[in-house]
Amino acid sequence: MGFFKKSEVKKNYELGKDLGSGNFAVVKEATKTKANPSAEIPNKVAIKVIDKAKVEDMNDIQREIEVMGMLDHPHVIKLFEIYDEPKKMMLVMELVTGGELFDRIVAKGSYTEADAAEVMKTLCQALAYMHQKKIVHRDLKPENILYASSADDAPIKVADFGLARVVSGKEMMKTACGTPGYVAPEVLQNKGYDSGAVDVWSTGVILYIL
Ligand code: PIT
């Protein structure tokens, strides 16, 4: 994959403050240094630093990279490049600074119908794009929807493709996954489910919350 680099991430980026963290990864703000020749990458990025020792199955990371690498949309966090170091895998991604939809809902209490409609329209556009590429996210929730900036009318971007899959044709999915509260009932029933529909269910829950 043209996207993989063996060199150290520190040769091309200066790592800054933490933006968030999960079980086996931290997302940090980073700035491109002069050494980096790639002109398409903006000066400021977000880098997901994955601790290989803490990942149970590196295939999961491989899949996340595969999915993100297929996506190029104004409302989906973009993946620019990857650094595969002995102990860490670094995903260089688009930087957004507006925080999670989750925190804005908490701060506002509730959205006006017009604001909720704007979020929904954008989310549906991103979802239609992903589904057309046969990608299902499987963990849509306000924590995984980020605002581009702190502006009131900033656009949203879909993030976290850790559970996402590329699906081939009409086959059913079987793995029960996602986040309680946002998971479609057919996923919980464990009899197999139509892949795309589960994202639509989660989107409906998000609309209800807004
Ligand atoms: C940012 C700012 C921020 C978090 C992120 C990006 C994280 C994005 C992300 C995380 C994933 C993934 C895709 C995107 O698969 O506060 O610019 O685990």
Q: Main traits of this protein?
A:
six-stranded mixed sheet; two-stranded antiparallel ribbon; 12 strands; single chain; binds piceatannol; 210 residues
Overview of the molecule:
The longest helix has 20 residues, at 113-132. Helices cover 29% and strands 26% of the residues. Helix 3 (113-132) runs antiparallel to helix 5. The strands form 4 sheets. A 6-stranded mixed β-sheet has the order 1-5-6-4-3-2, covered by helices on one side. It has a two-stranded antiparallel sheet with strand order 7-10. A two-stranded antiparallel sheet has the order 8-9. A hairpin with a 3-residue loop joins strand 5 (79-84) and strand 6. It has helices at 58-70, 101-108, 113-132, 185-188, 195-209, and strands at residues 4-5, 13-21, 25-32, 44-51, 79-84, 88-94, 135-136, 145-147, 156-158, 165-166, 172-173, 193-194. The chain is globular, with a radius of gyration of 17 Å. It has 210 residues and is of the alpha+beta class. Piceatannol is lined by residues 19-20, 27, 46, 48, 64, 77, 93-96, 146, 159-162.
